[in-house]
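INFO batch 0412 | record 1 of 1 | parsing
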Amino acid sequence: MGLRFIADLHLYDKYSLDWRDYLNMSLDEYANYLVDNWNFFCHEDDVILVAGDIGHYCERTISTLRKLKGNLVLV
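INFO prediction complete | emitting tokens
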């Protein structure tokens, strides 16, 4: 079990398209990239504090968060 911290996911946040432009990814591609990398490094019993700027409140953001391993604490 580990304790991890992260912030500024900006899931489905169109505001962040400008600074994410270098990734050359759509919002869906970015979300899938995040899930793949997150689940590679995190385990089901990890506690992850997600400290703000999670993303646009929509079904796609919620769906993406549900795919992430660990016990998420959203701030």
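INFO post-check: Helices lie at 17-20, 27-41, 59-66.
INFO record closed
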